[in-house]
Amino acid sequence: MKINSETIILDSDPVLRTKSKKVELPLSAEDQALLEDMLQYVKDSQDEEIAKEQGLQPAVGIAAIQLGIPKQMIAVVVPEEDVVYEAALVNPRIISESVQNAYLENGEGCLSVKDEHPGHVFRHARIKVKGYDLIQQKMVTIKAEGYFAIALQHEIDHLSGILYYDRIDPEEPWKEDAEAEVI
């Protein structure tokens, strides 16, 4: 499936609020191809030339539901200084999380959300996620922190029909948490 700004559904579409279904393993050829395309989209969207040429919106992650496909599949690519964190996960679930929060200083964004929704989105600073990783072709447990942890939580939220702005305090959108890690 060729993914671009026309194939990504927006938050005005009620499909985005549906719960995604578990995916049967081993992956069917169709599911594997979809997840490979999702991962490729995220990678290509981070390359300025390719993104401009193909009209791709920059992203660090995407969930299958954003393509109107209610399956528990996400792809995340987070470049940080000397390392790039990549995961193409099937049936991901958070199995542990830190008490400490983290948030992006300037708030979050989403491929499916065009309108501005300013505010801090509090998430766990550190998490462990279990799922089948297409890249490693096996069940994995990923320990994530910082921006990678935030991106994973954002995409996993999509699988439950939750959008990032659902987590912004409407009374005090820019409230801070002195204990939280600010990214």
From TrEMBL:
Pfam families tied to this protein: Pep_deformylase
Catalytic residues in the record: 155
Cofactor field: Fe(2+)
Cofactor note: Binds 1 Fe(2+) ion.
Single GO BP term: translation
InterPro entries reported for this sequence: Peptide_deformylase, Peptide_deformylase_sf
Protein EC: 3.5.1.88
Keywords: Hydrolase, Iron, Metal-binding, Protein biosynthesis
Residues that bind Fe cation: 110, 154, 158
TM ranges: none
Domain of life: Bacteria
Keyword Iron: yes
Catalytic reaction annotation: N-terminal N-formyl-L-methionyl-[peptide] + H2O = N-terminal L-methionyl-[peptide] + formate
Function: Removes the formyl group from the N-terminal Met of newly synthesized proteins. Requires at least a dipeptide for an efficient rate of reaction. N-terminal L-methionine is a prerequisite for activity but the enzyme has broad specificity at other positions.
NCBIfam families: pept_deformyl (TIGR00079)
Name listed for the protein in its UniProt record: Peptide deformylase
Species per Swiss-Prot/TrEMBL record: Faecalicoccus acidiformans
Gene name as annotated: def
